[in-house]
Design a protein that fits this description.
Layout (H helix, E strand, L loop, with lengths): L8 H4 L38 E6 L5 E6 L5 E8 L5 H5 L3 E7 L1 H10 L2 E6 L12 E3 L6 E6 L2 E6 L9 E2 L2 E2 L5 H9 L12 H14 L19
Parallel strand pairs: 4-10, 6-9
Antiparallel strand pairs: 1-2, 1-5, 2-3, 3-4, 6-7, 7-8
Length: 228
């Protein structure tokens, strides 16, 4: 589960410092998270590096994220039932870095699903951009984008399995289940993607569930990924 549906990627995808626009993938599931904050009808997303947000997650949990210098959001391995001090959030490691659609953040702020907590110095773990992987449809060759440039490799390359697939995530529909999956305390639905490893598993599962549908068949040179 990733990406946005029905939105122009040029309008929602933050420009990376490498010059790319994130791919937009189909919506695969719904999120029934309700707002935990007061509605703010005039709120707007603040994508200046250092901005910190609290957001309503699944199961009544609050998660926390900080805007990076390249306009992505780094989410911390931290969740709580009530808003906690930002210093306590920063004492936890970064869990996930995502490109989140800016209009969807504005919508989440206005609906009370997100709240801005202020602007703080960017934590060291978020100063430098993280590598991302572009996986075009119909090929097993991917492009890895790093601060030093780009290079091509195969999707089964062990060195890229934990890298994030380029995509734009919706703040309300996609981010809450993704963060729950990354936190790992509850069993995650099989269709929540993100990393190269997860996306490979999703394609394998789709092929197993729908063997008669040609668009889900795996290519002959597919390298199986075993689930441990």
């Amino acid at each position: 589960m990733r990406g946005l549906q029905g939105l122009d990627p040029q309008a929602v995808a933050p420009s990376g410092r490498y010059g790319w626009k994130a791919d937009v993938a189909p919506l695969r599931s719904r999120c029934n998270v309700t707002g935990m904050f007061e509605e703010a009808p005039k709120a707007r997303a603040d994508m200046i590096g250092g901005s910190v947000y609290a957001l309503s997650g699944e199961g009544g949990w609050l998660y926390y994220g900080q805007v990076t210098p390249d306009r992505r959001i780094g989410f911390f391995r931290c969740r709580s039932r009530k808003v906690i001090q930002v210093a306590d959030v920063f004492a936890t490691p970064v869990m996930t870095v995502l490109s989140v659609g800016v209009p969807s953040i504005t919508s989440a702020l206005r609906s009370g699903r997100w709240r801005k907590l202020g602007r703080f110095g960017v934590v060291p773990a978020l100063v430098e951009p993280r590598p991302s992987v572009q996986w075009p449809a119909g090929t097993l060759t991917v492009t890895v984008w790093t601060a030093d440039g780009t290079w091509n490799t195969r999707v089964e390359d062990p060195a890229i399995q934990d890298m994030e697939i380029m995509a734009v995530w919706d703040a309300e529909a996609h981010v809450p289940p993704r963060l729950a999956a990354d936190f790992g305390e509850e069993e995650a639905p099989w269709h929540i993607g993100g990393s190269v490893r997860r996306e490979r598993l999703i394609k394998q599962e789709m092929a197993a569930r729908f063997p008669d549908q040609p668009w889900h068949r795996l290519p002959d040179d597919w390298v199986p990924l075993n689930v441990s």
